[in-house]
Design brief:
2 domains, Beta-carbonic Anhydrase, Chain A, single chain, globular, alpha/beta, 209 residues
C-alpha cells in the first residue's frame, strides 16, 4: 500500500504537472475516440501499450475481454451498459477488443480438468460465453499441441467478441454506415508485439507502424 501512496505523490509532482493543461480540459467532459475492451489481467496496461493519454480511451475490463451478445434485460449488465454508453453517448468511432498471451480465462476453458470449482461460481458462469470458441479450437488443433491451442483460443476468442458486438443493433447500424470500426488485437506480454485481426484473410498479422 505504501508504494501506491508514494505513487500518488510522484504522479502529482510529475505526470500531473506535465499534463496540467490536459487535465484542466478534461475536468468537465470526456471525448474519447476509442472504446477499448480488454482483460482485467494486471499485466495489461491499455494506455501504456497504445501510448495514449487520459481521455483518449474509454476502457472496459473483465475476465477474458468478453463482450456478451446483445440482450435486453432488467438485470444489472455492467459490460453491456458500458458499451451502450461508449457508443450511444460518447459516440466513439472505434472499438478494439484486445486479448493477450497466457490468458488465464482461455486456459481455464481449455483445461481438461475443470480448474474452476464451486467456490468460483460466477467466473465459471461468465466463461461459459467462451465455450463455442473452445469447441472450434479443439476440433482444429490436436490435444498434443497445447501451446497452439492456447494461442488459437486467445485469438479466436477475440474474433468471437467482435461477432458478439455486431449483435448490438446500434453497433451494427453504425458499422454498416461507416461511422464505427471494429478491430481485434492479440497482445503478447513477453515481447510487446500486437497482432491485429485481418478481416479479409481471417488471420492475425503483426501490427507495424
Amino acid at each position: 500500500m505504501q508504494r501506491l501512496l508514494d505513487g500518488i505523490m510522484k504522479f502529482r509532482r510529475g505526470d500531473f504537472e506535465t499534463h496540467r493543461e490536459l487535465f484542466q480540459k478534461l475536468k468537465s467532459q470526456q471525448k474519447p475516440q476509442t472504446l477499448f475492451i480488454t482483460c482485467s489481467d494486471s499485466r495489461i496496461d491499455p494506455n501504456m501499450i497504445t501510448g495514449s493519454l487520459p481521455g483518449e480511451l474509454f476502457i472496459i475490463r473483465n475476465i477474458g475481454n468478453i463482450a456478451p451478445p446483445y440482450r435486453e434485460s432488467t438485470e444489472y449488465l455492467a459490460t453491456t451498459s458500458a458499451v451502450e454508453y461508449a457508443v450511444l453517448y460518447l459516440n466513439v468511432s472505434d472499438i478494439i477488443v484486445c486479448g493477450h498471451s497466457n490468458c488465464g480465462g482461455c486456459g481455464a476453458v481449455l483445461a481438461e480438468k475443470d480448474p474452476l470449482d464451486d467456490t468460483l461460481p460466477h467466473i465459471k458462469k461468465w466463461l461459459e460465453l467462451m465455450e463455442p470458441v473452445k469447441d472450434r479450437v479443439m476440433k482444429r488443433i490436436p490435444e498434443t499441441d497445447l501451446a497452439a491451442r492456447q494461442w488459437m483460443m486467445e485469438q479466436a476468442n477475440v474474433v468471437e467478441q467482435l461477432t458478439h458486438l455486431m449483435t448490438y443493433p446500434y453497433i451494427y447500424e453504425r458499422v454498416m454506415q461507416g461511422k464505427l470500426k471494429l478491430s481485434g488485437w492479440h497482445y503478447i506480454i513477453e515481447t510487446g508485439e500486437i497482432f491485429i485481426h485481418d478481416k479479409e484473410t481471417g488471420e492475425f498479422l503483426l501490427g507495424n507502424a
